[in-house]
Amino acid sequence: MTIRITTLVENTAGRVRVLAEWGLCMLVETDDCVILSDAGASEAAARNAQVLDVSLIGVNVVVFSHGHFDHTGGLPALLPLMQKPVDIVAHHRIWDHKYAYHPGKRGCGHDVDSDYEYIGIPYERQEAEKLGARFVLGSEPVWLSDTVVTSGEVTMQTEYEDIDSKLMIMEKGEYRPDDLPDDQSIFIKTEKGLVAVLGCAHRGLINHLLRGQELIGSERVHAIVGGTHLMTASQDRIAKTIRQLRQMDVQVIAASHCTGLLAACALERELGESFVFNNAGTCLTF
Are 59 and 86 in contact (CB under 8 A)? Predict the structure, then answer.
């Protein structure tokens, strides 16, 4: 099997004329399935696809890793490039009213009257459906082909991974912590082991990999591509994560987006040539 993953947008750009933005969108091509993993925050992913001469006509399905704007906002600009109706596979909780709590940051790019910033999907479902989106919502894994499956809900298994406490949802007029049941990823079964394509891994990088091992039936984790949400992690959590990655004998970790520079430096220092800084314009082949 050959897997080709092209990062259409990410926080940083690695090529001339390619835009960067806070968000993530990756085109995943396997022998039997073409998937768009997330959509970035704006029209940047669509623009970059054209700059990189990447066609989206062959996309079979779009997978939303979760319902934050930086992974879903670019869908209206991407759908016309697919030139046909496309299924959007996601958890039904992507439509929660999602917020980030920024205490004491009033006036610093946020609503001056609130410590809460809306970070949910920035359009109505009907708007996307008019452009050809067909939402397929549920909490269970979805097999996209014989070798590709979504995680469905990811169980919290490790004792050291937790969800960012500043992520909230609004319910019945009140803010409460978002436990992000909609957080999911994509797993690909290969001869060399599991290839994991992550959005943000809000529920923990290792928790996602453990879920992938369960679904794929392989203890070997060959490669990890995408966001690992270690940017707010403690040094202890980063160290324990790296220790587990070594135990899993991970050969490639192509980190993006919410990994954070401190965690990325630690991963590169400890894992050496296995680490790749995966930015907009990067194309990886497995």
Answer: yes
Residue carrying the six token digits 């994991």: 196
**What is the Rg, in whole angstroms, of the alpha carbon atoms belonging to the chain?**
18
What is the identity of the amino acid at 247? Q
Report yes or no: 184 and 153 within 8 Å, Cβ to Cβ.
Answer: yes
Condensed to tens digits (0 to 9), the pLDDT of residues 140-167 reads: 999 999 999 999 999 999 999 999 999 9
Q: Kindly state which CATH superfamily the domain 4-285 is placed in.
A: Ribonuclease Z/Hydroxyacylglutathione hydrolase-like (3.60.15.10)
Query: For residues 208 and 258, what is the distance between their CA atoms, to the nearest angstrom?
Result: 15
Confidence of residue 108 (pLDDT cuts 50, 70, 90): low
Domain positions in the chain are 4-285
Q: Which residue has the tokens 């990886």?
A: 284
How much is the pTM? 0.95
- Residue keyed to tokens 């970035």: 40
- Residue 103: CB atoms within 10 A of its CB come to 8
List Cβ neighbours of 198 (8 Å cut-off, separation of 6 or more): 65, 185, 205, 208, 224, 225, 226, 227, 228
pLDDT digits (tens, 9 = 90+) for 52-91: 999 999 999 999 999 999 999 999 999 999 999 999 999 9
Q: Give the C-alpha separation, 259 to 231, whole Å.
A: 5
With beta carbons less than 8 A apart as the criterion, state whether 100 and 109 touch. Answer: no
Fill in the amino acid letter for 89: V
Cα dihedral sign, 83-73-149-14: positive
Are the C-beta atoms of 145 and 35 separated by less than 8 Å?
no
